[in-house]
Write a structure and sequence with these properties.
Organism: Thermanaerovibrio velox DSM 12556
Protein name: uroporphyrinogen-III C-methyltransferase
Distance between the termini: 52 Å
GO biological process, one term: siroheme biosynthetic process
Shape: elongated
Strand order of the largest sheet: 3-2-6-1-7
EC number: 2.1.1.107
Pfam families: HEM4 (PF02602), TP_methylase (PF00590)
């Protein structure tokens, strides 16, 4: 089955539930250049990823090549996803791809997406229809096929009573708008020009038809843009302000945490890209962990990941019969979410404070079990030894490099809109970034999740914005500081 799927405009949060479902079973994904790269994280890691999009005048693949590619993949794979920005059947040439699949005798289905006119203008507080202002909506393209009569086509647009949205028209805007004025549309017709509709970087310019012509002649129109003509363009409803509006952020954390962090930041107005350069791999057997728990007087977790891995590994938490320690609130929350109680927690969520706590409570001869990443700070372990306790370390997981096949697409987004911040979830992730990608892009600042991470960022990138608390609030506060004048 070939699925023609709309990725919407901007955040993956706008994907439909059906799009999420079919992406999760994809064996091959053919995507264009206007999708959000994080949509590809929702497909299996082992899938084949092919970029085949077109952007402005840069055609990586002609449409006939894309059609042939889909037919070829449809014959080789059980589930193929054609992932397109917006809606594949709203000026996305989805109909042509479906027709090619029909001719080849291949089955296909379509999943709608939120198109730029609907999602983009709504995000800016502009309703395309409004009682007493606009009772109709016309979506049109600024690029006509050879069989279309331009005069008759634009006569219909000029005489339409309601909102008119022109797609793919930045390069031909001046010619098209001049034609509309010659056909009787008033030069003072309200106009809204929206670039990157639906994205945090989205930019709206309210003007008139005459003003839009002037902007086009001055080369002030960005691509991709959609153009709204009609009284609705000057309605000014006021959606709630977004504190991170327009901020471009790279989130370098493992998949689960990174993806959810990026979506949270997008809910506050940012564009966020997830780069899970490292991924978790279980490093021990269940029997070894159970044996360690049986003899432990204390169980210590130094990250939120530890309790989650433990629960997946041993299933039955009744094996935990000792006192428990969390390094900080985030870890304590993860313990409680998995059904593990928290007995102690240091005042500050770092290795030094944890070491001080353990040094004060451990009695000689008590066994202290650390279940954590293979690579972790030695400070708490040494503190237990200094208290004449018996530290036992079981590295229940380790972080391994993860490939990102669409890194080229992320870089393309950053060419025009470079990130102002790169969020690192650990020192290991900062080191992996440096090893694979070099320095930070443009003038981006490193935002560090924890003291050890901040030290690594200082060494690798020459500076870091240290979060005051290792949680969502600490991250948002740090990012707000980058937007402050």
């Amino acid at each position: 089955m070939i699925w023609l799927v709309g990725a919407g405009c901007g955040s993956p949060r706008w994907l439909t539930l059906e799009a999420l479902q079919v992406l999760s079973g994809a064996q091959a994904v053919v995507y264009d250049r206007l999708i959000h790269p994080d949509c590809l994280l929702l497909a299996p890691k082992g899938a084949l990823f092919i970029e085949a999009g077109k952007r402005g005048g840069d055609h990586r693949m002609e449409q006939e090549e894309i059609n042939r590619l889909l037919v070829d993949l449809g014959r080789r794979f059980k589930t193929v996803i054609r992932l397109k920005g917006g809606d594949p059947f709203v000026f996305g040439r989805g109909g042509e791809e479906a027709a090619a699949l029909d001719r080849a005798g291949l089955e296909w289905r379509a999943v709608p997406g939120i198109t730029a006119a609907l999602g983009g203008f709504l995000a800016e507080g502009i309703p395309l229809t409004h009682r007493g202002v606009s009772s109709g909506l016309c979506l049109v393209t600024g690029k006509l096929g050879d069989a279309t009569d331009p005069q008759g086509y634009f006569e219909g647009i000029a005489s339409f009573k309601g909102s008119r949205v022109l797609y793919m028209s930045a390069s031909s805007l001046v010619r098209n708008l001049r034609l509309l004025t010659s056909l009787g549309l008033s030069p003072q017709t309200p106009c809204g020009i929206l670039s990157w509709g639906g994205w945090g970087r989205g930019c709206l310019e309210r003007t008139t038809l005459e003003g839009a012509i002037g902007m086009g002649e001055a080369g002030r129109l960005a691509s991709p843009s959609v153009i709204l003509l009609g009284e609705a363009a000057h309605l000014e409803l006021k959606p709630a302000p977004l504190p991170l509006k327009g901020l471009q952020v790279a989130v370098c954390r493992p998949m689960g945490e990174g993806y959810s962090t990026a979506r949270e930041l997008e809910g506050l107005g940012a564009d966020a890209f997830t780069l899970p350069l490292l991924e978790e791999e279980t490093a021990v057997q269940e029997a070894d962990v159970i044996a360690g728990l049986r003899e432990a007087n204390w169980l210590v977790f130094t990250s939120p990941r530890g309790p989650r891995v433990l629960k997946d590994l041993i299933k039955d938490l009744r094996h935990i019969r000792c006192s428990t320690v969390a390094i900080g609130p985030g870890t304590a929350s993860a313990m409680e979410d998995t059904g593990i109680g928290v007995d102690l927690m240091p005042q500050r969520p770092n290795s030094e404070s944890l070491g001080e706590l353990l040094r004060g409570v451990i009695r000689p001869g008590e066994r202290v079990l650390f279940l954590r990443n293979r690579r972790s700070s030695r400070i708490p372990v040494e503190a237990v030894a200094e208290a004449r306790g018996l530290p036992v370390e079981i590295p229940i997981y380790e972080m391994k490099p993860r490939d990102i096949p669409w890194m080229g697409l992320i870089r393309e987004h950053w060419e025009d809109h470079p990130p102002q911040a790169v969020v690192f979830g650990s020192a290991a992730l900062a080191e992996e970034w440096s090893r694979r990608l070099g320095g930070l892009p443009g003038r981006a600042k490193a935002v560090a999740w924890g003291d050890e991470c901040a030290k690594a960022c200082m060494d690798l990138f020459g500076g870091a914005v240290a979060m005051k608390t290792p949680d969502s609030k600490g991250l948002v506060d740090a990012l707000k500081s980058l937007l402050s004048p």
